[in-house]
Structure formats: structure tokens, C-alpha cells
Amino acid sequence: MGMSKDEIDKLVSDASKDQPAPEDQRPGTIAKIAELFVSSIENIAPILTSAQNAQGKSDTPVNKPLSEIVGSVPAGSSFFIFKISVLCEDTWVGYLDKSLALEISQKMMNQEGAEELDEALTSALVEGFNNVLGAYDTGLTEEFGVTVEHSDLKFLEGDPAEVVPAESGLAADVGAWQIPIEINIDDFSAPMGMILTDQAVTELQEKRPQKAETAPEPAADAETAPVDVEAPDAEAPVEPDAEEIPTAKFEELEPRQTTGEARGIELIFDVPLTVTVELGRKTLSVKEILELNPGSLVELEKLAGEAVDLLVNGKLFAKGEVVVIDENFGVRVSSIVTPKERLQSLSRTEV
To answer: How do the domains of the chain map onto residue ranges?
Structure first.
């Protein structure tokens, strides 16, 4: 007699209860994400701050609502957000202790003594962490097997409890993972961290390739008696079907004297760079641009006689004055820009 549908469902249900629950792989993914981020900071921070070395260590991740994580971060910390859309839809959130934000930005600007982040120091942080995230992109690309490129990096201003959910697009009560990180730059030490939503971690886990583990070689059985293999008779005839494999022969290598020439920046002395002189800029609306005709005048922001900008590959490098040499225009360099002026030039609105 056949079984009823209810009986079959009960048997399937009972069988599923006996199966062990699948192991949660997310902690391993979180640990790898943190490891790659710490490695990026260790590689880039010494370059940004001219430090001898930088070391980082991630702590045990904590899972709780986003609002609780933001509220537990020390007051005055700098929060930043960015996107890595190829790996997950949700925004990535990070934070720096105030002392760490000031340490990095001031070292980049060759200054000290600031107690608060101003516009210039914040611009330095954005430039610095774009470099850190660039190295992070490389690590994630190798780990996930897809080309990773971060976007929309932004340091937030205002009350974190309000601006973090508003700017990131994440609900305040969304479940999230906090990854505490301790950073040491020479003798300086301060905390920072990353925040990923449950959904982001799940997506990362699904997209992370499973690493194939090498199976260990089987151990020899101690109770198995060794097998004696008789050596072949030297005078025994070679089987006609046996094929002789020739032994590879290599030429003997002899040590050579090195030239002793320096292999530093001289190697790229012949790399061409584009040098541009910028007389000035002007912001126009679409309507104003469409109204331009031959003979129209566009008044630039610079005054007559004011120093012009000298750009190398589009980046501000120096300032100078326009001169005429044999009916050709030229520029006499009057000053090399400071790091602060260079950062301010990067933040200017393009025409």
C-alpha cells in the first residue's frame, strides 16, 4: 500500500533534521577582507606619512545594528564611505580615530599642531585613502578573480548617527559587522575600523571562490612489509619496444661581471611628460557657452600680471610668468607649489 503525502513530508522533514547545519563561512570571508585591508594600509601608510613602517591588526568582528556600531565609535572619529559595486551592492563604511586622521593628513601636508580637520586636511585624507583603496582593489582582484575598482570615496562631516545612514543609504537598524583595526605608524598607535552589512558579507561570501585545498599524501602503513625490488641484470638484453629518453644537456654557466651602473630613477629619465600652461579658468553655464560667437570675450579668473599655473600631466607643479622669447611664448618659473597648494588644485571644479 502506498504512503500518503503527509507521511512522505514527515519522513523528508525528519531526515533533514538529522543532517548537520552547513558551516557558516562568513567569518572566514570577513577575516580575509580585513587582512587585505590591513595589508593595503601597511604598504601605503609609510609612503603617505614618510614613516619607517606601519603595522595593523584586525580584532574579532562584532555583529549588531549599524546604529549601535556608529554609536560605539569614539567621539570625533572621521567616517568615510565608498562603493565596490562589482562585489556587493551595499556601501562600505570605514572610520578613523580623530588622532589617526590628524596624524596621516598632517604628515601628508608637512605640518603639525592642528586640532581639527579643515578642508585642506580632509582633501589630503581623501587623496591618501584613494591610494590605500587602490592597493585594496588589487588585493580583492586577486582574491575574488574579478577586476575590482572602488568608487565614490567620501569623508563625511556632521553627526555620524545622522550622516552615516543618510550618505551611505543604509538603514540605521540594518544588521552589520564591525571589524576593529589597530594601526601602528612608527611609535604612533590608534584605532580604526570597517563596517559591512550582513547583506554585503553574504554577497562577498557567495562571490568569493572556494580555495582548493591540497590533499595530504597518504601515510605509509607501518604494518606493511617492505617489498624488495630486484635490480635488473646489467647484461640482460633491452626489450626491443623500450625507448631511450635522451638526457638533457646544458651549457656550463660562467659568472659575469655586472656593470655597476645605478638602476634608480635614471631608468625613466626618457619617459615623456606633458607640460601645460594654464592662463586661467572660467565657469560658464550651458546657455552662456551657446551664446559665444567669434569676437566674444571670456573673462578669466586671473588678474593681468598674476602668475600662471604650470601643469605636469594635468597636475599643478609650479607657477610662473609668461615671457616672449624670439616671438614664442614661454614661462619663467617663479615657484614650485607646496603639497597644500597641489591638494587644493585637485579639488577645484573643472570647467
So the answer is: 26-207, 272-292+300-346
**pLDDT confidence of residue 140:** 95
Phi, psi of 238 (to 5 degrees): -75, 135
| CB burial of residue 327 (10 Å; 0-12, 13-18, 19+) | exposed
Beta bridge partners of 63: 177
Q: First CA to last CA across the chain, in angstroms?
A: 83
Residue 256 has pLDDT above 60, yes or no: no
CATH number of 26-207: 3.40.1550.10
Q: Write the Ramachandran bin of 45: left for phi over 0, alpha for psi from -120 to 50, otherwise beta.
A: alpha
272-292+300-346: CATH homologous superfamily?
SpoA-like (2.30.330.10)
Contacts of 45 (CB under 8 A, 6+ apart): 51, 54, 104, 132, 183, 185
Higher confidence at residue 69 or residue 332? 69
309-334 average pLDDT score: 84
Residue 305 to residues 190, 279, 308, 321, 331, Cα–Cα distance (Å) = 48, 10, 9, 8, 12
Q: The whole model's pTM is what? A: 0.57
Average pLDDT, the chain: 81
